[in-house]
Amino acid sequence: MNTKLTEFRKSIDSDEGLQSKRKLLVMVCVTFLALNLSGATLEEANTFIFKITFSNYTGLSYLFLAGVIFLTLRYYSYAQDHQTKLYDLWSGRLLADYKVFIYDHEDEEVRGLLGNAINVYGGDEPGVRDAKYHISGSFQRSICYPREGMDDVRGPYYYTEYISLTKFNEKWRPKHYLWLLMLELKYQLEAIFKYRESLDLLAPYLLSISAILSYILRSRILSLLQVGT
Q1: pTM value?
Q2: Which of 55, 96, 170, 227 has its CA 20 to 30 A from that of 11?
Q3: In 3-state terms, what secondary structure has residue 155?
Q4: Helix (H) / strand (E) containing 196
């Protein structure tokens, strides 16, 4: 196991804010799922001082729904930094695949599948050897790398150069792009099923979506039954 992955797992496990929000979100989602899918009703809740009896199930459902949405947003605010690191890990594995991207230090050119799209000479653009995979939309992909520019007043400055992978030419064709998407899917699925940190971060979102969908499905079924009667 590489050092980056080990450090990433430790950062997730030691993030108390993330862990507490995840536990609370999972607990609320599981309870809401049980109420919606089993047809059970929550009759009363025990507290240290008194008991609360719930007589309005519709209002209780709205309360749970609002709670799920709120806790999901709170969880996201804690998880987004880890999700960015997770993206860097699996996209780094993608570009580490020699069939996808390899920098030829002798000729100072990019080889592999992406060599058809990256028409940049490494001697002029040394930052291309540290290229990263960038996703900006459903099917918008690009390669980005650090680049240095020169301004007459400010002097040298640095920025990120993007090479779009949806602009095709004689070398980079749609079939190459589709093959890249297939390889991307492979590494994303590998990240989910082979490395536990993906499910650690993504499972609460899946539970949240399932809980909300179960509420919508239950509401729809109840409304159809009322219309039928």
Answers
A1: 0.79
A2: 96
A3: strand
A4: helix 196-228
Closest CA to 188 of 178, 177, 199: 199
The pair of three-digit structure tokens given for residue 153, joined into one six-digit string: 């007043």
Q: What is the mean pLDDT of residues 131-150?
A: 89
Place of tokens 């990019």: 110
Q: Which of 10, 187, 203, 22 has its CA nearest to residue 88?
A: 187
User: At 9, is the pLDDT very low, low, confident or very high (cuts 50, 70, 90)?
Assistant: confident
Place of tokens 């400055």: 157
DSSP state of 129: G
Q: Using CA atoms, how far apart are residues 73 and 67, in angstroms rounded to an integer?
A: 10
* C-alpha dihedral sign at 217, 220, 225, 226: positive
Residue type, 72: T
Residue type, 151: D
pLDDT of 212 reads: 93
What is the spatial distance between Cα 204 and Cα 79, in angstroms, rounded to a whole number? 10
